[in-house]
Amino acid sequence: MFQSSPNHIESYYAASSRALQLQRPALQQDMEVDVVVIGAGYTGLYTALNLAEGGRSVVVLEASRIGWGASGRNGGQVIVGFSCDMPPFELALGKSGSREVWRLTQDAAQEIRRRIADHSIECDFSEGHLWTSVLERRVQLLLNWQDEASRKWGYDRLRFIPKAELHRYVGSNRYQAGLIDAGGGHLHPLKYALGLAEAAEKAGVRIFETTRAARYVERTDAVEVHADRGKIRANQIVLACGAFVDQLDRRLQSRILPVGTYMIATEPLGEQRARSLLPTGCAVSDNQFVLDYFRLSADHSLLFGGKCTYTGRTPGRLTEGMRNDMLQVFPQLADVKIAYTWGGHIDITMGRTPDFGQLRNVFWAQGFSGHGVVPTCVAGRVLAEAILGDDTHLRLFSGLKNRPFPGTETLAGLFQVLGMSYYRLRDYV
Ligand SMILES: Cc1cc2nc3c(=O)[nH]c(=O)nc-3n(C[C@H](O)[C@H](O)[C@H](O)COP(=O)(O)OP(=O)(O)OC[C@H]3O[C@@H](n4cnc5c(N)ncnc54)[C@H](O)[C@@H]3O)c2cc1C
């Protein structure tokens, strides 16, 4: 897919979880099951877990390791809603359809808490997410969202924080105002993915790692998936491949653009210093087009994310660039060392709208566009419901039309670079 990939850089998450110790076998035989799921990120794991709870036999094939994709390397920010916000849903699905989408995302944010409790997943979950505005003129966007959320979607968990009170939440002068969402939170994303995998296995799901699905073939009443050392025959296939679907399904590939995005983790700061940055322990994202987001880890490191690349190349002097971004927010960290730098790929669609669908026995969910911790939970529910016989929600999401990107990946990347430059300029001029 990419000439060079940021994925080789070891993340803070890999170093602070049991991911490196736990390993599942590769597929070595032919099998027959009800459903085969491709990809052991959140989308695949949620879908598999829900299907197993619904009585289906399920196998998950993962090309690398559980959570190797975006699910095990993200910012861990649990944010209610989708990347595209609500207007595209209203436009495509009308009032009642978009209300239902909002209800599903709220349910999903609660389901994450329930899954953590029910399956005793130790993933350092913490409550609270804060939106901030760097620019004075974007403060109004926070107020607009608070008003819209309450009026249109009946969501009253947002509270506006004026600049004078912001120091209670974030030890930085960079922001003009904030909007705290009590329904949001943050977690250790890789520990969470591993916990979901264990829950799925307890429910009967079999997961094979280092097993790439090379191709699938549709038969009259079944689907056959071919991997290096085995073949799986199933009634249905679920494609949950994130940014990596590649030639497994060209149709799906044409609707997403893989975009590289990056994070750093500081050395542990000690509890007192960490608390001086984020006194309530909430996660923070700003409302710039290319946003910065950050939070504290359980060992009091600052995890800071931002930057995007559309070219497939890891930016030069990445750690230095990310550190400079962090110092714009927290200049008081100038003496602190950066312990980890890593990146991952997100799957963006043209309109940043999710791409969920079904064609005969093939089901898929992709296009989370950089905001998937909560939306993948929606996807897992919607796909599993449809396979278990109720496709009401899947039909609803199919109402969103995701157009293919023009031309090749390189050309699509070029259009995105131009688009991003425009929005970046708008952010700063
Ligand atoms: C750096 C970064 C920060 C982010 N921060 C946030 C955040 O703070 N909050 C938020 O909500 N979202 C965030 N996101 C987005 C979020 O992580 C993703 O939207 C979400 O994890 C997508 O999950 P997924 O299961 O669809 O895809 P992935 O997690 O990418 O999983 C797809 C899996 O499929 C496997 N696969 C692909 N093809 C095959 C094949 N042919 N055979 C077998 N396996 C295959 C891959 O190996 C991979 O493991 C971030 C993403 C990144 C990269």
Walk me through this protein's architecture.
- This protein is an alpha/beta fold and 429 residues long.
- It contains eleven helices and 17 strands.
- Strands 3, 4, 5, 6, 11, 12, 13, 14 and 15 form a nine-stranded mixed β-sheet that branches. Strands 1, 2, 7, 8, 9, 10, 16 and 17 form an eight-stranded mixed β-sheet that branches.
- Strand 8 and strand 9 form a beta hairpin.
- Helix 2 runs parallel beside helix 5.
- The N terminus is likely disordered.
- The structure holds flavin-adenine dinucleotide.
- The site of flavin-adenine dinucleotide has 43 residues, from helix 2, strand 11 and strand 15.
Q: Rg to the nearest angstrom? A: 21 Å
Please identify the structural class as seen in this structure. Answer: alpha/beta
Main sheet characteristics = 9 strands, mixed
How is the CATH topology named? Answer: FAD/NAD(P)-binding domain
Shape: globular
Count every beta strand, where a strand is a DSSP E run of 2 or more residues: 17
Order of helices and strands: HEHEEHEHEEHEEEEHEHEEEHEEEHHH
CATH class descriptor name: Alpha Beta
